[in-house]
Amino acid sequence: xxxxxxxIIICGDEWDEKREYMERCLRLTEAQxxxxxxxxxxxxxxxxxxxxxxxxxxxxxGTELKEIKMxxxxxxxxxxxxxxxxxxxxxxxxxxxxxxxxxxxxxxERASILDIIKSTKPADYGYELNYWxxxxxxxxxxxxxxxxxxxxxxVRIFFKEAKFSYHKPDKTYQRRNEDEVEKWKLDIKPIIEKxxxxxxxxxxxEDEMVLSTQTTxxxxxxxxxxxxxxxxxxxxxxxxxxxxxxxxxxxxxxFKTEWQNMFITEKILKKIRKRFPGKKILIIWDxxxxxxxxxxQDYLKKSNGxxxxxxxxxxxxxxxxxxxxxxxxxxxxxxNNFIADIDTATDQFVIFLNQTKFEYSLLGFSAKPK
Length: 370
Hints:
This protein is of the alpha/beta class. It is 45% helix and 10% strand. Helix 2 runs antiparallel to helix 3 and helix 13 packs across helix 14.
């Protein structure tokens, strides 16, 4: 079933009816109100289903509890328990359990569903997505045809018959402009190619990340019957890491800091300068404020062209190989681990990065295997 976002409900057993009623019980969303109203107005709904939906809507409107009992027959406790269950589990709470959906669709109904998949989008039916998913289609079939399939496989058959293929959506960013991204690739590739062929030039892709005591998790495989338990930190402490990936060698240069600003960035650039004495350094990084700050820009000017920078286009983090370094490092060192000491954990993370070779490519250019 498609779940709508809801506001948190805090309803205690002890309260001054009117004041607590209005102050502590927040409103339903418009989608939920519409959903319940459809139950009340539908000829297919039973008397009990309509009564449950009515009680939930009356609570949402702030109707006096005496009136709710008079119209629905539900006590205060019963009405609020019903509302709480609806917010937690959705429309199934309102529907009568004894009412079982039909087992199969008719040939005509199947043809109609195929036409819906091919010619319409979920948004056309009040859903908040423009792309069909198995969950949305299953819910749509249940709601409109009173047929419920036991597995997603039966629903996926509709997509196969409609000649749809399965895709996992990529993340997109509001600031991203595809034309600008493609132009950036065309403009920068010759510059990277020239720098790759110059033995006196170092190419570094840079990014920052924040390591936190907040535990992060990944899916893991265990024998049947065993369940993972991971200790989770209650207090959150952060440390920042500046990371530079040498595209020619695959070597990482990572530095732990308290946070990120233009003053710290200048100090890190000075450390990078010492790592490559006499070399030209080309740094490709994002457009963060601590990269563009006046202190950093003054330092770059004083380098007399020995350190030059290129900015990645906005909203295109996948172009930066350093992003992949972070993911690989976290998967190896911090995921599913309780971080008791943020400094120790960050030091270990930095050591792993600086001792590992990462052969990620920048516009097709990467470290040559030895």
